[in-house]
Design brief:
alpha+beta, Cytidine Deaminase, domain 2, five-stranded mixed sheet, 29% helix, globular, binds 2'-deoxyuridine, binds zinc ion, Cyt_deam_tetra, CMP_dCMP_dom, EC 3.5.4.5
């Protein structure tokens, strides 16, 4: 499972654009995400924080939940890209990794990057070894 370089760059650019929509009055740390649907449509996500902190939604989950709510089927996605202003390419939190395992194919490519243009490619399964699931 892989997508071509042009599509990957388009996905990373969309994640960077989504990042500008982040609502982060508490951390000031903006994250953007772009999820590529089966049909080539791109679903964008940003982190959305909350005064109670706990309800905060990461960029990755915003994109995944938006796509599912828009009618995309679980495990139908082609790739996901995440961008944050980090020294090394951003790395998703444990909650988002668990949600990716639930809603994405294990071999789906995950493109992690930062604003310096550094990139790291991994997969959903590699991000969460030993993931919990009911069918164990
Ligand atoms: O991969 C990540 C890591 C962090 N955040 C958000 C959550 C919170 O709003 C802020 C600081 O953790 O960044 C994301 O959206 N995605
Ligand atoms: Zn997260």
């Amino acid at each position: 499972m892989s997508i071509d370089r042009g599509l990957r760059d388009e996905l990373l650019a969309a994640a960077k654009q989504a990042r500008t929509r982040a609502y982060t009055p508490y951390s000031g740390f903006q994250v953007g995400c772009a999820l590529l649907g089966e049909d080539g449509q791109i679903y964008m996500g940003c982190n959305i924080e909350n005064a109670a902190y706990g309800p905060t939604n990461c960029a990755e989950r915003t994109a995944l939940f938006s796509a599912i709510a828009a009618g995309q089927l679980p495990r139908s996605f082609q790739a996901i890209a995440v961008v944050g202003d980090t020294n090394e390419p951003i790395t998703p939190c444990g909650v988002c990794r668990q949600v990716m395992v639930e809603l994405c194919h294990p071999d789906m490519p995950v493109y992690l990057s930062n604003l310096h243009g550094q990139q790291h490619e991994t997969t959903v399964a590699a991000l969460l070894p030993g993931a919990f699931g009911l069918k164990m």
